[in-house]
Amino acid sequence: MVSKPHGGRLIYRVVSDNRRENILSSMEEYPWVKVGVREAYDAENIGFGVYSPLDGFMVSDDLDHVLSDMRLSNDIPWTIPIVVSLDGRDLSFGVGDEVLLIYGETPVAVMQVEDIYKYDKDYYAERVFGTRDLAHPGVYNVYREMGDLLVGGRIELVNPAPNPYEKYYLRPIETRVLFRERGWKTVVGFQTRNAPHMGHEYVQKTALSFVDGIFINPVIGRKKKGDFRDEVILKAYTELVRHYYPRDSAVLSIVRYEMRYAGPREAIHHAIMRKNFGCTHFIVGRDHAGVGNFYGPYDAQEIFKEFPDLGITPIFFREFFYCRRCGGIVHEKICPHDEGDRVRFSGTYVRNAIRNREAIPPYIIRPEVARVLLSEPEPFV
Amino acid sequence: MSTSKYTTVSIPRSLYNRIKRLVEETGFKSVSDYVTYVLREVVAMHEAEKYEEPFSEQDLEEIKKRLKALGYI
Ligand SMILES: [Zn+2]
Predict the structure, then answer these.
(1) A158-212 pLDDT tens trace
(2) Which ipTM was obtained for this model?
(3) pTM of the model
(4) What does each C-alpha distance from A45 to A41, A61, A222, A233 come to in angstroms?
(5) B54 touches chain A (CB under 8 A)
(6) Quick check: is A193 catalytic?
(7) Which of A217, A297, B12, B70 is deepest in the core (most CB within 10 A)?
(8) What is the third-level CATH fold of A17-157?
């Protein structure tokens, strides 16, 4: 039996075809809120149950608990605020109204407004990110992009934001059936935003040695300049899985989500999402979901101690590297050799090599993966 | 609406003392911290026993159809 959904119930909140038609044909009668890609993806994740047990955007009681205790008001572990903000000018609706959340031209969701409330940005930033430094992208978002009011309430998904990778997207209800079909009882989730090098592969395979299957779940979302494009990451992983994973031991599918870079708190959130997809285990690496030097390299592993009721087992890894003396991919605990014998996996090195069209040693990147990366005319954002 | 986030439950004083001795050697800050931790662990375990997958036979066929079309099964 795969993992139980978080909070005990898999949420599925999508409007019926009839209701969608009604909403679309009378859109001008609804008050609306313009949302960004973050909230559009959050709405999708609420609607399809990736955020179970959340059935809407947070009301103030839940946000308070999340900020102070890392739990919802019903005591279920939850570390990241899932909120919609407003700037509060020309507020055209109130509690009890139905409001459309509009992303671009798409009405992504309809919300039953339950709460419109103020929040303290200093407290919010301090609690979620551990800092108020605007150099932190999550903090920047709070002070410079979020409005002063939050609006909370249950939602139903109307139309998800356009998804160019639909064929790579499985909903939690689908991965749960898939894992069952494969006969997997234990499944380890792997979060990634990068093209795979050998370090990633060894982390995954080490974890896979102890469970029935691996769920490789790249995050599709806003990228920084210089990151690999989503399409390239998906092509690279498809090749890796095809050539180097036993058939029926790996599932590759995406999740659409905007990174918060909240380090430890976000590691818990990443685990909860994968639990809802059916994972029983989750890989937490070095500086998971971190940015710059805001978090200690293993803070995101330490925090799991605080959640005896998380319902998914973290698997912690230190850094893998190639060791010339060992003649393989190893890590601190199994390699006795000096730093001079070791080759660290560096994202910067890989990006530069790809940019300059240089050959990359096979102990850093599999040739099939390198071929994908090198054949792309424009592999980077 | 209750204003306090905490409430009181009763446990035998002998158990309280036993836990108190135990937590002195652990990372727990207090008996309350320890009790909260242990209860959450146990409660989550009991809650998990009650779960059934939310799809009907009909849903299952639809889902399998999509998984086949995408090449997952
Ligand atoms: Zn070595």
Answers:
(1) 999 999 999 999 999 999 999 999 999 999 999 999 999 999 999 999 999 999 9
(2) 0.89
(3) 0.96
(4) 6, 21, 16, 21
(5) yes
(6) yes
(7) A217
(8) Sulfate adenylyltransferase (3.10.400)
